[in-house]
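Lab meeting prep.
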Amino acid sequence: MLKTICYISDSCQEESLDTLKALYSKAKNNNSKYNITGILIYSNSNFLQVLEGDQTSVDATFKRISLDRRHRNIFKVINIDIQQRIFEDYNFGFTIVNNNNKELDSLYEYLEWLRKADNTLANKVVNMVENFIAQKTAKH
């Protein structure tokens, strides 16, 4: 059975670009090993991540993340069984939100494509991601 978990969290420190790239590389390798797809977004010391895949793998991954001392105030926004993956075609992308960002443009294109699929869960995730980004870019 497939499952998705979406969470937001605070980083315990301001992350440098090099630290974020290393974190993303490790996350991408681990998620690939466990056949987990999704997205990871970082902005203003906050993370939003969507994990999707086999229920056991997603739960185990989230447990590892929740025990990671680099996070605090972890809040699960979505925790449900799914019929199909939303981000399967996105190749576990990582986006650092800033005002001049090709990755952010690519993410918005993908979110728009998802919105056109008219899938209720996908639309809920799309709205949540867009709201997270909007809040973060408004602070700049």
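Slide two material, second protein:
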Amino acid sequence: MSEDLLPIGRFARLCRLSVKQLRHYDDLGLLSPAWTDPSSGYRYYRSAQARDALMIGLLRSMDVPLPVVARVLSGDERNELKAARDRIEADIARRRRGLRLLDRVLAEGLPEHEVSVVREPARRVVAAREAATPATIPDATAACVSRLLPRMAPGVALIGLFPLDMEEEFDVRVTVEAADGDELLPGGPFASAVHVGPYEEIPLTVHGVLAWFGDHGHTPAGPVREVYLNDPATTPPEHLMTQVQIRVEDAP
């Protein structure tokens, strides 16, 4: 056995990791010991491995997923770290939106919404689609809108479509009505309420509409529709108007 090998306990202290963590990273193939005693199974590490071990500990302290850590160690450091940073930034933005919603609820209580049932016609539309997670809905929606801008016409509203049941990953769609559209947006009866205020607060109105379903014993059907009634480029956030619609599945 080489004299520059450190037993796992000493190496763990050097790298500010636990022995249990080092064993786990070895099992994953993320950081293997330089030598394992075949008779005792005891692990030994070289001092030069400390840099990788410290990088693993640092990235894990920032909740960077282990598969990303592995790719960083394999050499694609800049791209992977930038992607990890973007994910953390998106999570911070999502949490800030959540804090603003919570502040509003604390100040005003749960908002009451006037909900009415409207019958929407079927519409032929052009749609843009983007993969999203709950944290990236705003960015995915914005990407869809940018692709539809060339199809916009005066007086025609964009309609965002979002799943009723949020999963870890899903598609966000934004549509615009067009005579030559290649998709048909179904019509039918919808519970509808108008949201006034920033887009990030629309979930409050969505919950208000869903509460109406519970109060009246109806069954909601997705996707949730958001009809954007004015232009965010020229309208202050507090004056933005969005019609929230959820189809009433069991309406007569």
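Talking points for slide two:
The chain has a mean pLDDT of 89.
The helical segments are 8-15, 19-27, 50-61, 66-73, 77-108, 137-148, 202-216.
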